[in-house]
Amino acid sequence: AQTVTQSQPEMSVQEAETVTLSCTYDTSESDYYLFWYKQPPSRQMILVIRQEAYKQQNATENRFSVNFQKAAKSFSLKISDSQLGDAAMYFCAYTGGVASFNNNAGNMLTFGGGTRLMVKP
Amino acid sequence: ETGVTQSPTHLIKTRGQQVTLRCSSQSGHNTVSWYQQALGQGPQFIFQYYREEENGRGNFPPRFSGLQFPNYSSELNVNALELDDSALYLCASSLRLAEYNEQFFGPGTRLTVL
């Protein structure tokens, strides 16, 4: 079974500065996807960024980028120029690729325990 | 485009009762997944429905059951409620394609079991 671990329950960053959230995962699959989701207080969970395991290039989305280290099974999220609106719970998540999908596992997401990000003005 | 909606927003039940939670998928989506998120934890996968059939299930007992309707909306039913069932229940819809498909989450239903 796959597991996802976020070792930082809380992180704090000064507005306009950069912060990195850590995530490690364990899997025996070679084909999979990794995600970072943002869950603001009392609001819907939204996808921040996605990384396909077969891609060597790290994904970027505006101020958000990842450092994907496949051999180390590490997937960190870097938020640059932090804004007050970035304050939220951030979840790292995993889903299997085609083999898992075809084995009737659908595309279930396995989440980490989350990191609460606070942004100081 | 209408997003994922869930009802009710909040619900209070007592131990032993039964509850039904509802989810309307985003327009054009044919797959619905349900997750349980206990306070301070990450969501846990309950099950997924595709074409009105269960398509993958997490480590949840049979008293957690579901339905998907022809319009792709879905229900989550929980029988014999226990105190530990208190959680935020999230529904996510997606369009099942050949491989990866992004899941879009609803706002959740907060269930409290007393």
Can you describe this structure in just a few lines?
The complex is a heterodimer of chains A (121) and B (114). Chain A has 121 residues and is mainly beta. Helix content of chain A is 7%, strand content 50%.
Explain what this protein looks like in three dimensions.
- The complex is a heterodimer of chains A (121) and B (114).
- Chain A has 121 residues and is mainly beta.
- Helices cover 7% and strands 50% of the residues of chain A.
- Chain A contains 1 helix and 12 strands, in the order E-E-E-E-E-E-E-E-E-E-H-E-E.
- Chain A has one helix spanning 98-105, and strands at 3-5, 10-14, 19-21, 24-26, 32-39, 46-52, 60-61, 64-69, 74-79, 88-96, 110-111, 115-120.
- In chain A, strands 2, 5, 6, 10, 11 and 12 form a 6-stranded mixed β-sheet that branches. In chain A, strands 3-9-8-7 form a 4-stranded antiparallel β-sheet, with no helix packed on it.
- Chain A is globular.
- Chain A starts with a strand and ends with a strand.
- The mean pLDDT of chain A is 92.
- Chain B has 114 residues and is an all-beta fold.
- In chain B, the strands form 2 sheets. In chain B, strands 2, 4, 5, 6, 9, 10 and 11 form a 7-stranded mixed β-sheet that branches.
- In chain B, a hairpin with a 6-residue loop joins strand 4 (31-37) and strand 5 (44-50).
- The model of chain B has no long low-confidence stretch (mean pLDDT 93).
- Chain A binds chain B through residues 4, 6, 33, 43-47, 50, 52, 91, 93, 95, 97-98, 101, 104-114, and chain B through 3-4, 31, 33, 35, 40-45, 48, 50, 55-56, 58, 90, 92, 94, 98-103, 105-108.
